[in-house]
Design goal:
Number of helices: 12
Strand content: 5-15%
Number of strands: 16
């Protein structure tokens, strides 16, 4: 049977429900600019009506409604769009890092410019050309010395910058491993909190938003797969579980390195860092080392002019020249080992017994010559007169002397600008020094442009998916204002209804039975 105060209960339920709806709308408005926030909505339904089927059911026709009640407060979120966003986000992270690395490589190589290695190479050849015009001029010899030191210093500095970039990328992998540990620990903690709260029947909407935001951030670092289990998110990377329930897996730089080597880490910023270091930076370091080594020791073919007097015991193409065979009766085309090999065929400018030129370049500290340790021979640094320029001597035995002013070797050195060097041991790859370096510059430019194109495309796709996601989950202030007015009017109407029924009860209680008094 219907209670006398039934309508008061109906009005009360309406007031409570509309109040909750208004509070939720206010919560949405307050978080309109909060990263990762998903708008929330109150799910309402009509309360159970009177009367239920039973033996004591009244004979009054129809069921009388009992008002409204809140079933739940739910967040609006589309899991499919979340998965799409994370798939695009990891590609964006990988390409951004690759482009950033290649952009730094372009800055390190610094070409084309008036101060880069290419310009110094041209000055090196020009210095030899000037020396060939006046081999005895000490100023020209010092210019060759200083130009060579400028070139080797530039190679040393560029090599160091590449090594520093390599180290930066390695350290960044470690830094990101630490960031991942923090994110995974927070996700595991949120899994535990969400499970405990929702076991009581409530939706942990704000905690779920925090967990999804952390998952989004994690997806930019590495390729992840997210599985929603009863105990919370299980996050994996290429089959390797990173967090399950409230248990995170500790991440180290070595673990990420091994995952990259095994192919389970194949996207994201960390992948981009390791790939950039092991492919781009290592490749350009290797090419720069090859450039320096080939300049010094790479096989080149030169034609020694008729009348050349080779130093005693010189071995060229398996032939040893000594005694009377030192003097070339005709032009001779031979293979020598780079600038060092050619320099040893000439004589320096000192008076007296002819002294064959020694190594022009050397490796600072010894060992294999690289771009990082190439330098001018210390003997030549100390005494530029030891730069060999002559190919001819006069006299024999103890009376043999260098023909002063001969520029045969200096001319051959200057002509090396157009001579093809062999790059790499046991290969047939040949190129001029200038063209080889230009190829390096061109390669990094092409790779940087491609990485930028891919990064731009990834950004467009990521933004598009995120825009679709925000259209579903984001807070629209216009919509919330409309809802606020709607709930406000409903609340006011419920309050008016309660006031009206209160007046009816007042009339019933205080006015009934007073007639005739």
């Amino acid at each position: 049977m219907t209670s006398t105060f039934h309508s008061l209960e109906t009005a009360k339920r309406s007031l409570f429900t509309q109040s909750i709806a208004l509070n939720t709308t206010g919560h949405n408005i307050a978080n309109a600019n909060t990263d990762g926030y998903s708008r929330q909505t109150v799910k309402m339904s009509a309360a159970r009506p009177l009367e239920a089927y039973g033996i004591n059911r009244s004979v009054n026709p129809g069921q009388l409604g009992t008002g409204v009640e809140v079933n739940s407060i739910e967040r609006i979120r589309e899991q499919f769009l979340d998965e799409q966003f994370r798939n695009e986000n990891k590609s964006l992270g990988a390409w951004n890092i690759q482009y950033d690395t290649l952009d730094k490589l372009q800055a390190i190589i610094n070409e084309p410019s008036d101060t880069g290695i290419s310009s110094l190479i041209n000055k090196f050849w020009s210095a030899w050309s000037d020396l060939s015009k006046d081999p005895e001029n000490i100023t020209n010899r010092k210019i060759v010395k200083e130009t060579t030191l400028a070139l080797t210093d530039a190679l040393n500095h560029t090599s160091k910058q590449l090594s520093d970039l390599n180290g930066d990328l390695t350290r960044n992998v470690e830094v990101n491993a630490s960031s991942m540990n923090s994110m995974l620990s927070s996700i595991a903690d949120l899994n535990n909190q969400i499970t405990r709260i929702e076991s009581l029947g409530d939706n942990a909407n704000d905690l779920r938003d925090q967990r999804d935001l952390l998952t989004d951030q994690l997806s930019k670092l590495v390729n992840i797969e997210v599985t929603n289990l009863p105990e919370g998110y299980q996050i994996s990377m290429g089959g390797q579980v990173l967090v399950a329930g409230s248990t995170p897996t500790p991440i180290t730089g070595d673990l990420l390195q091994n995952a990259y080597a095994a192919g389970t880490l194949n996207n994201g910023e960390v992948f981009g860092m390791i790939l950039s270091r092991d492919q781009y930076v290592a490749d350009y370091q290797s090419q720069l080392d090859q450039f320096a080594n080939s300049l010094v020791n790479g096989d080149i073919q030169v034609t020694l002019p008729k009348g050349t007097i080779l130093p005693e015991g010189t071995v060229l193409d398996g032939v040893t020249y000594q005694g009377s065979t030192r003097a070339l009766a005709t032009d001779l085309t031979v293979t020598v080992k780079g600038i060092n090999g050619l320099h040893k065929l000439g004589y320096n400018a000192n008076d007296g017994t002819p002294v064959a030129g020694g190594d022009f370049f050397a490796a600072a500290g010894g060992g294999t010559l690289t771009a990082g340790n190439i330098t001018l021979s210390q003997a030549i640094i100390d005494d530029p007169s030891l730069i060999a320029t002559s190919l001819k001597t006069t006299g024999t035995g103890n009376s043999e002397t260098v023909i002063k002013g001969n520029n045969g070797l200096a001319l051959l050195m200057a002509d090396l600008k157009d001579v093809k060097f062999t790059f790499g041991t046991g290969t047939t790859a040949t190129s001029t020094i200038d063209d080889y370096f230009k190829a390096i510059v061109g390669q990094v430019g092409v790779q940087a442009n491609e990485a930028k194109r891919q990064a731009d495309n990834a950004l467009v796709l990521t933004d598009q998916v995120n825009s679709n996601r925000l259209s579903v989950s984001g807070v629209s202030l216009d919509e919330e204002m409309s809802n606020m007015l709607m709930f406000q009017h409903a609340y006011s109407a419920a309050a008016r209804f309660m006031t009206t029924f209160d007046e009816m009860l007042d009339k019933l209680i205080n006015g009934t039975g007073t007639v005739g008094r």
